[in-house]
Structures are given as structure tokens and as C-alpha cells.
Design brief:
Helix content is 31%, strand content 19%. By secondary structure, the protein is an alpha/beta fold. α1 runs parallel beside α6 and α4 runs parallel beside α6.
């Protein structure tokens, strides 16, 4: 099974520096290998339509849907309280060291660094704290990653990838930002 790694982009249409599809397209050109569609506040129809549009700019089978319904795809990312659905071939979960990981292929661990996107999610773990949770499946570092040196630190700590939202969504040049973060992660992994 192929699990997410490298640079993983999380969508946020409200903070995107331009039309969401164009920001995602630029980030993919810059090195985002996977995309997690969040936008859980949209209606089912609008979310399904957005997933279809994103699949045209994301590498094949590399779009993950946040929530238990894969919206016609094969991959989901669950919150800590979402029930494990039947059907998806790739399942991830937000993990803070206590959630059940039965049937889960990868996790996000957060917040690694202080983040303005989700204030109030506790103190930042730092890369040592994130690695110290000893996830039993591949883990993605999430939270506050906005610079190549942070991406490299996550790779050196054993993360399979970095999950980034704000730094790319808000960037005036999402392709360049994605390239810098992907390169930083690759450099830290080698």
C-alpha cells in the first residue's frame, strides 16, 4: 500500500490566495504529492463537485477526502472521532497518541509547531515530541510548517511527510512555496 509522504497539501478555500483549484494546481507543480480536501462545511453536492474538479489537477489516486465519505474516490482522512468506514483503500486519521488506529494506514500528528490556522490545539509538540509519540504507522507532521528548515527537521525526526495548509494556501506564489517545502523535506530525509 502506498501511503502519503513528502509534501501533503490540505485545502482551505477561505484562506487561499486565489481560486482554490489554481492554488492546488500550482502547489502540485511545486511538489505537493498528495492533497487532502477539507472544506467539510460545504454541502455534499458542492464538496463532491469540488473533489471531481480537484482530481483533474492532483496526481491519480492522490486526493484524500477529509471525512468518512471518499466522494467517489478511494481515500479518506478521519478526525479522531470519525468512525472507520467500509470501502476506502487508504485511511488516515488525526492522531494525538490515544485514538484507535485499527484499520488506519497513516496518521497526522499535530501541532508540531505553533500554528495560527488552528489556535487552541495545545502547545506545539516540536519534532522531538511528535516523534516521541511513536506512531505505529507512517506519520505526517502537521501544524505550523512554513519553512524549508522546519520541513527538513520533520523528515530528520522520522516523519513520512509534512501536511501543510496555511503556508501554501496563503502564499502569493504557492508553487514556489511548495517547491521550497518539498525540497526542504527531501533534504532532511536524505
Amino acid at each position: 500500500m502506498v501511503t502519503p509522504g513528502g509534501l501533503v497539501l490540505l485545502t482551505d478555500r477561505r484562506s487561499a490566495s486565489g481560486p482554490l483549484i489554481e492554488v492546488v494546481r500550482a502547489a502540485v507543480r511545486g511538489g505537493a504529492a498528495w492533497v487532502i480536501l477539507r472544506e467539510r462545511d460545504l454541502s455534499y453536492g458542492d464538496r463532491a463537485a469540488l473533489a471531481t474538479r480537484l482530481r483533474s489537477v492532483v496526481p491519480v489516486d492522490r486526493l484524500i477526502i477529509s471525512g468518512p465519505d471518499p466522494l467517489g474516490g478511494t481515500a479518506v482522512h478521519l478526525s479522531g472521532s470519525d468512525h472507520l468506514p467500509a470501502g476506502p483503500t487508504l485511511t488516515g486519521r488525526s492522531w494525538h497518541g490515544t485514538e484507535d488506529l485499527s484499520g488506519v494506514d497513516y496518521v497526522t500528528v499535530s501541532p508540531v509547531y505553533p500554528t495560527s490556522s488552528k489556535p487552541g490545539y495545545g502547545p506545539a509538540l516540536g519534532v522531538t515530541g511528535a516523534a516521541g509519540l511513536r506512531a505505529p504507522v507512517p506519520w505526517l507532521a502537521l501544524g505550523g510548517i512554513g519553512a524549508a528548515d522546519q520541513a527538513a527537521e520533520c523528515a530528520a525526526a522520522g516523519a513520512a511527510g509534512i501536511a501543510v495548509m496555511g503556508a501554501i494556501m496563503r502564499s502569493p506564489d504557492p508553487e514556489r512555496t511548495a517547491r521550497e517545502l518539498a525540497s526542504g523535506f527531501a533534504g532532511g530525509a536524505s
